[in-house]
Design brief:
Number of helices: 9
Order of helices and strands: EHEHEHEHEHEHHEHEH
Helix content: 40-55%
Radius of gyration: 18 Å
Strand order of the largest sheet: 3-2-1-8-7-6-5-4
Distance between the termini: 11 Å
Length: 279
Amino acid sequence: MQASQLCAANYHYKRYTLEAFLAAAERLGYQSIELWASGPHLHLEDYDGARLDALARSIRAHGLTLRCFTPEQCVYAISVSHPDKVYRDRTVDFFNRHIEASVRLGCDRMVVSTGFAYLDVDAEDAFGWCAEAMARIARKAEAEGVTLAVEPFTKYTTHICNQASQLVRLLQTVNSSRLKGLADTDVIATTAVDTFSSFIDVIGAENLGHVHFVDGHPGGHLALGDGALDLETALSKLEAVRYDGPLGLEILDRSYVFEPDRPLRQSMDWFLAHLEKKG
């Protein structure tokens, strides 16, 4: 593992400008970022090509590389599992436009999800809608050269994709070289079906497209060292499968909002200490 794989992310900087986040990432020694595309920072409807180009220049000016682009898909009305075809079609268009924006920003990796799912709708029907819509998004990704990383959510959002076996089924059904899986240390621990290691074994290391690397109790999406997750073992697994992709710091707990630099500094310190220990 290398320090350049650890990606600062702007989730917990939402009370500060995007420029403040970029400056902090540079100041705190990060080389890479994951960019959460959401208001108030980056609501895509407000950005034309010129504004995206200006943002790309700003990222580079801070000495940073955009390793992963993550459209907001929990708060926004986005779901490929929704029974309403109009809703699903709008979701496909939403993701396709973000794929184009990702390319414009010089990024070849983007996070997607199956979205919110109703409990009183047949799960097989929902899976079928999800797979059909995801295949359309994957075709766009193939054309644009962008890898999509599907993020499983907890049972409080969906029952279509919570665990590794469900993710494998979706990947196999869509059957796209550009559709991969995302392993989130805290979501995996919260779901408590897979361990981080078994999750990767089930989906296959070749299908690991992105990692959200955060601490938790489980739950919380905390800075590294602020929770109780076995992150050392998780990193050892990533090293064992020779994962060389990004590790996104999806830090979400609102306790960090007023001092957003602290969790980024602490997480980098924790990660560097791990690298030093490994020698």
